[in-house]
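Step 1: inspect the first sequence and its C-alpha cells.
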Amino acid sequence: MQRIIYILLLLAGMPIPFHAQQSTPYKLIATIKGDVVDFALDNLDNVYVLTSTDQLKKYNANGDSVAVFNYVKKFGKVSAIDASNPLKILLYYKNFSTIVVLDRLFAVRNIIDLRKLNIFQVNTISRSYDNNIWLYDETDNKLKKIDDEGKTLLETADFRLLFDNAPHVKNIYDQDGFVYLYDPFQSVFVFDYYGALRNKILISGWDDFKVAGKYIFGINNDTLHRYEINSFRVDEEKLPGILNNASKVDFTSARLYALKNDLLEIYNLR
C-alpha cells in the first residue's frame, strides 16, 4: 500500500518525504451508491458514472451530482467514455460506430457517425493532446486522428505491414508526445504524433491499464504493476484488501476510485 501511495505522489510531481513512505493517510471520503457499471475521471476530480441503462451522471469533487445525460436510447450501449477534457466529453457507441461529443453541462455539441467515414470497426477512442480524437480502425488496421467534425487529420501505415499480427486495441492513451495502444494479448505499441512507430513494450494481461506521466500501470491477479517507461523498470505491489473485490480501479494524483457491486468508493490519498 505504501508503494501505491508513493506512485501516486510521483504522478503528482510531489516530493516524497521519509515520513510519507512510512505512513500515508488513506481515507474513504465518499461513496456513490446505486446502479453503477462504469466510470471515468477528469483532471479536476470530477467523476462520470455510467448506469446499466446508459445514463451518464457527473459528480463533482465533493460527490455532488451536477449533470445528467439522459439521451441514452438512440445509439445503444456506451462502449467507452473519455473525460480527459472536462469541456468536451466523448461517448463512444461501438454498435453504431458513433461518437457523441458533450460539453461540460452534457449538452450535445456534435455527433460523429464513423460509418460515414468508412470506419466500421473501432473498439475504443481517446482525446488527443490537440483536442482531436484518436481511434484505431481495425478494418484498415490503422491508427487515425480525426477532428470533432469527423475529418481525418492523420493515419498511420497499415499495421499488417508493420507487425506479424495486427493488434486488437483495447486502450489508447495520448501522453507526453506519444500515443500508446494496448492490446492485452500482445503488447503496448508506441507511436509519435506523426504516426511513426517508436517502440513496442512487451506488456500483456494487465487490466485497468493506464498511462500516466512516465509510467504505465495495470492490475493482474490482485497485483498492481508499475512500468517506468524510461528505465524499463517494473515494480509490483499486492493490492490492499479493500480493493480485492473491485471490478475496476482508477486514480488521479490525489484520489483512488474503486468500483464494486453497485458502489463506487472514493479514497483520499493525501
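Step 2: inspect the second sequence and its C-alpha cells, then contrast the two.
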Amino acid sequence: MEHHHNHDHGTLSASKYLGVTFLNGFNALVEVAGGMMSGSLSLLSDAAHNLGDTVSIALSYFAWKIAGKEKDVHRTYGYKRAEIIAAFVNASALVGISLFLVFEAIQRFRSPERIDSGLMIGVAVFGLVANFVSMMLLEKGKVRCFACDTAA
C-alpha cells in the first residue's frame, strides 16, 4: 500500500542560510587571526575548514543560480556545467588547503613552535560557540516528519 501525504516540512529561509554563512566566515577569520597570533596549527586548520565551507556554500549558491538559466543558441545544453565547475574549483581548493596544512605540519615537526595555549583555547571556545549558534539557527524551524522516514 502506497502512502501519500501532503504537508509543509518547514523550510529554512535564505536569510537564515546567509546569516549562518556569514557567521561561519567570521568564525574562520577569528580563527585565522587567533591561529597566527597563538602559533596554533589546529586553529589554522579549523579556520581553513570553516573558510572552505563558507566559500563552498557561496560558490554552490552562485553555480545553482547560473545552472538554472535556460539554454540558448551558444549553450545548447544550458548552464548545468556551472555546478560541475564549482565542484571542481571547490575540490581543488580543498586539495590545496590540505597540502598546505601537511607541509606546515611537517615544518612544525622539524622545528616546533611555542603555542599560546590560553589564546588558542579562547579562540577555540569562540569557534565552538559560533558553531553551536549556527546549528541552532539551522535546526530552528525544521519539522521532523516521521511519515516521510517510513518505507512505503
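Step 3: confirm your contrast with the notes below.
Confidence is low (pLDDT under 50) at residues 1-10, 143-148. Residues 81-110 form the longest helix (30 residues).
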